[in-house]
Amino acid sequence: MTAIQDVPLKTISGETTSLADYAGQVLLIVNVASKCGLTPQYDGLERLYAKYKDEGFAVLGFPANDFAAQEPGTDSEILDFCTTNYGVAFPMFSKIGVVGPDKHPLYRELTAAIPAARNDAGMRARLEGYGMTPNPQPEVLWNFEKFVIGRDGEPVARFAPDTAPDDDALVSAIEKELFASE
After folding, report:
1. Domain that holds residue 174
2. What is the pLDDT of residues 74-89, one digit of tens each?
3. Of the residues 7, 36, 68, 164, which is catalytic?
4. Is 36 known to be catalytic?
5. What is the pTM (predicted TM-score) of this model?
């Protein structure tokens, strides 16, 4: 098991946990936000979770308010929003920082393990088009960046925020980890 498995986490309802509780599963870790143009990805993330959860897969949602204050709510408000508007059943965690000096240790480990997201040039250009300066690598670029963690607990892939949950490359990376030993 890697150090990433031992990082203390808090569920959105306040229980202490860690990724060790998901040992042996393939994980998709996503920093989420309720007031983002990418927020409708919750639908696709929930479909992905529903499709593969019986195969040993989980989507883990980590709300963050690091980008244009697009996740201003409390944990209970966030959970209510996700379940009411998108039927989210995948595990959600307490709001954390994913960039800058308040970056949660989980995201320090993730960005150190995989410093660059696949296919982030389009998202970078879009942010620049809005007059924003995108975060330099290895920082998370925006809400809904995705990290795939293999059954062994190792980060294996990282995808740009605008990568849809049903994107072929993302689904292939998840399936490769789910069905590698079959």
Report:
1. 3-178
2. 999 999 999 999 999 9
3. 36
4. yes
5. 0.96
